[in-house]
Amino acid sequence: MSTAAQSTPAPAPSAPSRRPRRWTGSLARHLTVWVIGAFIVVPLGYAVLSGFKSTGDLSRDPFGLPSPWRGSNYTGILTSDTFWRQIANSAGIAIATTALTVGVSAMAAFAFARYAFRGREMFFTLFAMGLMFPFAVAVLPLFVLLRAFGLLDNPLGVVLPQAAFGLPMTIIILRGFFRTIPAELEEAATMDGCGRFGFFWRILLPMARPALGTVAVLATVTSWNNFFLPLLVLSQPRWQTIPVGVQQFQGQYATDYALVLAYIVLAMVPALAFYAVAERQLISGLTAGATKG
Amino acid sequence: MTSGPPATPGASAPATSTPGAPPGDAAAPDASTPDASGATVPARSAARPRRLRRWLSSAWFLIPALVLFALFVLLPIAIAGYAAFFRWGGFGPPSEFVGLDNFTRMAGDPIFRGDLWRGLVLVLLSLVLQLPLAVGTAVLLNGRMRGRAVYRMVFFAPYVLSEVVTGVLFGMIFLPGGGLADHLVEDLPLLGGLAGRWFSDPSTAMPTLFLVMTWKYFGFHMMLYLAGLQSIPGEVLEAASIDGAGAWRRFRHIVLPLLGPTLRISVFLSVIGSIQLFDLVWVITAGGPSHSTETMSITMFQYGFKRYQVGYASAISVAMFAISLVFSLLYQRYVLHRDLRGAVTAPGAPR
Predict the structure, then answer these.
(1) What residues of B are in contact with residue A165 (Cβ under 8 Å)?
(2) CB count in 10 Å sphere of residue A245
(3) Among A183, A200, B243, B304, which residue has the least CB neighbours within 10 Å?
(4) Which residue of chain A is at minimal alpha-carbon distance from B54?
(5) A272 CA to chain B: closest CA distance, Å?
(6) A218: nearest Cα among A166, A269, A291, A171
(7) Average pLDDT, stretch B177-200?
(8) Closest CB from B64, B164, B272 relative to A107
(9) Shortest CB distance from A257 goes to which of B172, B183, B272?
(10) Nearest to A271 among B162, B238, B317 (CB)
């Protein structure tokens, strides 16, 4: 592992190494990264392995491999309706939130990026300020408001506020992208008889697919992981999402450690799988959002 | 509520006196777009409805976003601002006006003051420990290294997990007696004393919480720095190494200054994040033991949803809002102002 770094003379764009790197330096680098990697991976691996143990085995030997590999924790959860209902609720809410956030933001970003109208900068500043408001600030009055609207125990009560709080970041990222599309394109479309909405719908949105993918992934992950709002709004088990479900499950089976860990592992899988598929969009969205905010 | 902007007094459009030209800056890409309303004859008497129609032809795209934002972001904040002046259980309209009582009570509340102190501690800890770790890892992974894509992916993975999953997982790991952490440290000379304490001892709960936060968030900051490092031109570093600058001096005098904007953003996000920290703490400790890990959000939640002192909880919300707002404005004014003028943000007309 450590000798490979010096053998390839491929040009590296940002790490100029004119002298061949000594193998000790390379080894030290790898060791450092391995230590940090262990810090990250050990808790996750512990959870995965523990899921295959019985709680008795787990407290006797927390480190070792499961001596009889028991799949019953995992299979028990995977055959329960509750788990799948929570997954479906989380997925439904995430999809609805993403569609609403991206759709509404794309329209707003379109207006902000391409048209001049009275109050444009004021409205944009208003949205941009939304970035500074921690969600926790609004959660209490939001609850009062949702109760007045009759949106408690209704998925819309989660979807609408989540979409509203997702607007600032999404609008800022999309506006930046829409600005890069040349004005000549719209002129040509207009000459061919395309209205504003026609241009937006048939030309701009298809062109903006990469940016839309980025913000959609961001909105999906944020919604999937949200806990505070579903905890308050969706108190009935029928609507519970995965994060709320994990917390409930832990409360219910507090002493059956192995079972709880198995539940956590299964709850992680969709997020990690999504990350594996959409890594590029997620990271570009997060870095763009951070630097453009 | 804010969707009738032709009458909005604060609208700051510079070119409203010339009805023929679209208002706004000249850099707007649509200066030559044909007017959608069709009417081009300058009739003074019809100016108002025409202007409204013209305004709507561009701005109606904005209306869904404005309605959503006004209803679910601005209105709640306004409600909190109003309810903070009442003693209110949360049911029916607030009626018992108490003036600034909630705020004076908050200023004297040792729990709230503790929240502020603990928030500060978390910010300082992340500046001193988490930030160098993130920068160092980013520099390591930015260099040529076998398998760095895998490392990057692994380091970032915790950020993708929900706070609840993270919280429950570490609650188990740090379980007194029988948890993984106890087994790890019990035979070690210095750390052995930690066994059985972690989250259950007020004096160790906060450092343990910070450890979990580092696990969860340092990968995100590392990604920010990696993006920042990738924007540093390789020629600059090459020139420096030709001039005889060693690795440390290249880092100290070239990489670090050029990472400035990223550093400032990363610090900003750490502070905002610690102001609203809730999920992780709620799941692991719910603020305990004896308030040693309590944050402002937890205090607000306790009063608002457990004790039905919604007025007081609203005052805490307002304080959180004010702190974030003041911090953001000051930070942007005095720390980020150089960056905001640069190419990192605002790739077009000035705001």
Answers:
(1) 72-73
(2) 22
(3) B243
(4) A117
(5) 7
(6) A166
(7) 73
(8) B64
(9) B172
(10) B162
Closest-CA residue of chain B to A267: B165
How confident is the model at residue A2, as a pLDDT? 40
What's the rounded Cα separation, in Å, for the pair B232 and B196? 47
Q: Return all residues near A264 (Cβ < 8 A) that are at least 6 apart.
A: A47, A246, B165, B168, B169
Gap from B326 CA to chain A (nearest CA, Å) = 10
Using the beta-carbon criterion (under 8 Å), do A63 and B183 form an inter-chain contact? yes
Structural domain tally of chain B?
1
Q: Is residue B1 part of a domain?
A: no
Question: Is B351–A135 a contact, with Cβ atoms under 8 angstroms apart?
Answer: no
Q: How far is residue B188's CA from residue B185's CA, in Å, rounded to a whole number?
A: 5
Q: Which residue of A has its CA nearest to B227?
A: A287
Domains and CATH numbers, chain A: 80-292 (1.10.3720.10)
For A58-62, B80-84, B131-135, which range has the lowest pLDDT when averaged over its residues? A58-62
Assign residue B236 the CATH number of its domain.
Answer: 1.10.3720.10
Question: A107–B65: do the CB atoms touch at under 8 Å?
Answer: yes
Residue B58 lies in a domain: no
Whether residue A212 is predicted with pLDDT greater than 70 in this model: the reply is yes
Q: What tokens were used for B212? A: 């979990």
Query: Could you give the angle at the alpha carbon of B95 between the alpha carbons of B93 and B97, nearest 5°?
Result: 135
pLDDT digits (tens, 9 = 90+) for A3-53: 444 444 444 444 444 455 567 777 888 888 889 888 889 889 888 888 888
Residue in chain B nearest A112 by alpha carbon: B62
Judged by CB atoms closer than 8 Å, whether chains meet at A144 and B90 is answered as yes
User: Considering chain B, what is the average pLDDT of its residues?
Assistant: 77
Tokens linked to A248? 């409930």
Residue B318: partners with Cβ closer than 8 Å, 6 or more residues away: B80, B81, B84
Q: How far apart are CA B131 and CA B209, in angstroms?
A: 16
| A275 neighbors A159 (Cβ within 8 angstroms) | no
pLDDT tens, position by position, B271-313: 888 888 888 898 888 877 888 888 888 998 888 888 888 888 8
A121 contacts on B by Cβ (under 8 Å): 12, 351
Nearest by CB to A1, from B24, B146, B328: name it: B146
Range of B54-63, B93-102, B215-224 with top mean pLDDT: B215-224
Distance from CA of A210 to the nearest CA of B (A): 18
What tokens were used for B65? 């976003």
B88 belongs to a structural domain = no
Give the separation between CA B107 and CA B113, rounded to whole angstroms: 7
CA distance A248 to A254: 10
- Print the domain residue range for B115: 109-308
Residue B150 lies in a domain: yes
